[in-house]
Write a structure and sequence with these properties.
14 helices; alpha/beta; 15% strand; 334 residues; 6-stranded parallel β-sheet
Length: 334
């Protein structure tokens, strides 16, 4: 078996969650001794074409793969639901986006998507394909909590040992809950808020530009950082806050749980497998976020570190890698 792993525009999207997912796919193939190529010119020498994006090059590569008798695995990382409330005019063109990604996904002999929630969404798209829910996974050894890393993070960003630090991760998108993150920083000046992630502000609505340019003594937009810096931040923070409005999975929640940080997320369907009060804490609106932040940081709520860590270990790249290989085997058998 040889797999052509193709991700259109990887250099551009490599710093996103999709970029992380592709790295984990490569790791899975290597761990399982599966031969692979990243070069679309190598299509004739491959048995399976695994496509991660929905651009025109991806579409035509999938068409070519079928003409050559190759099997196509289409990875559905995006839905209409998580496209909305993202870039400029995304809501206005979301129906067109749904039509296009559906057209792309139907080129898969099978479809993979990260969660049972995104699988349910796609099942309503009338794709008429078998859909498998497989987490994008994470490298649990990489995201192990380390007190030394935590101190290095605090020193780098000029935080004291006594500061209570609330961390967020994501692109500058409304969907990511960035407006609530800024509002909570305004409401809770006694805590430090730091957001990691970046997106050129020319692609986002005015309200997001205003939010990112908010000047508060307790609020920092740290921009994009390499994973080595991010894992130190997890180790040094007191709370991971994920007020996202929509996700197909949301890998940062797994990274935070793996580093045993108390985690507070929005109560939305994609997080249904993370039980409120058992693995994470959940909030429905900004007032509930504010209350739970105070309760967590004032030790009025159990921190849930062990349960969160156990949950993250279930999504280790080695485990999800084996699930990915099983789908490859099925598609070749059929």
């Amino acid at each position: 078996m040889k797999v052509l792993l193709y991700t259109e525009g990887l250099k551009t999207i490599g710093k996103s969650g999709l970029g992380k997912a592709v790295k984990h796919q490569i790791r899975s193939l290597e761990d399982n001794n599966i031969e692979y190529s990243l070069d679309p010119k190598d299509i004739n020498n491959c048995d399976i074409v695994h496509i991660n994006f929905y651009g025109p090059k991806s579409y035509f590569l999938a068409k070519k793969a079928h003409r050559l008798g190759k099997k196509v695995v289409y990875h559905a990382h995006s839905t209409e639901e998580d496209f909305r409330n993202s870039f400029l005019f995304s809501n206005q063109v979301s129906k067109l986006f749904k039509w296009w990604i559906s057209k792309c996904y139907r080129l898969g002999d099978v479809i993979i998507t990260p969660t049972e929630y995104s699988k349910r969404l796609l099942e309503n798209y009338n794709l008429n394909r078998d859909i498998y829910a497989i987490s994008n996974g994470l490298d649990t050894k990489f995201f192990e909590k380390d007190a030394i890393w935590g101190r290095e993070f605090r020193k780098k960003y000029h935080y004291s040992e006594n500061d209570k630090i609330i961390m967020g991760v994501g692109l500058y998108l409304k969907r990511k809950g960035i407006l609530d993150f800024v509002e909570l920083a305004k409401r809770l000046p006694e805590y430090k808020f730091i957001w990691f992630g970046y997106l050129d502000l020319k692609y986002v609505p005015k309200e997001i530009k205003v939010a990112v340019n908010t000047k508060l003594p307790n609020l920092t937009f740290a921009g994009y950082v390499e994973p080595e810096v991010l894992r130190k931040a997890y180790s040094g923070c007191d709370l991971y806050l994920f007020p996202t409005l929509e996700e197909t999975e949301g890998i940062p929640i797994l990274e935070a749980l793996c580093e045993q940080i108390p985690t507070l997320v929005r109560d939305i369907p994609v997080f249904e497998e993370y039980k409120d009060g058992e693995v994470v804490y959940k909030a429905k609106d900004i007032n509930e976020f504010e209350t739970k932040i105070k309760d967590i940081l004032n030790n009025k709520l159990e921190l849930l570190k062990d349960a969160g860590y156990k949950k993250a270990k279930e999504k280790d790249v080695k485990i999800v890698g084996k699930e990915l290989i099983e789908v490859y085997k099925k598609v070749l058998e059929n």
